[in-house]
Amino acid sequence: MYSTPWCGYCRRLKGQLDRAGIPYQEIDITDDPEATKFVEGVNGGNQTVPTVRLPDGRAFTNPTLQQLTAALSATA
């Protein structure tokens, strides 16, 4: 999950993922130019977070937990 330290939506999603037992790696785009470039690339040039990249390469911007669980179960 691409995020920033001050993003409330990121904190919410991290909490939901933690409670659901879904592992993730957090990448702070403020410290990683390549991560920032990826986020901008999938969000029309905007640094919109949370942006989640699934193992199959699909990216979701500000997804709900339900969207992520459905996408993850579809790839399993």
Automatic annotation (TrEMBL):
- GO-annotated biological processes: cell redox homeostasis
Q: Which CDD domains match?
A: NrdH (cd02976)
The record ties this protein, via SUPFAM superfamilies, to: Thioredoxin-like
Q: Which Pfam families is this protein grouped with?
A: Glutaredoxin
Q: Name one GO molecular function term.
A: electron transfer activity
Q: Where is the Glutaredoxin domain?
A: 1-54
Signal peptide start and end residues: none
Which superkingdom does the taxonomy of this entry point to?
Answer: Bacteria
**Entry's InterPro entries?**
GlrX_actino (IPR011915), Glutaredoxin (IPR002109), Grx-like_ET (IPR051548), Thioredoxin-like_sf (IPR036249)
Annotated NCBIfam families: GlrX_actino
Name-wise, this protein is Glutaredoxin domain-containing protein
Q: What is the source species?
A: Virgisporangium aliadipatigenens
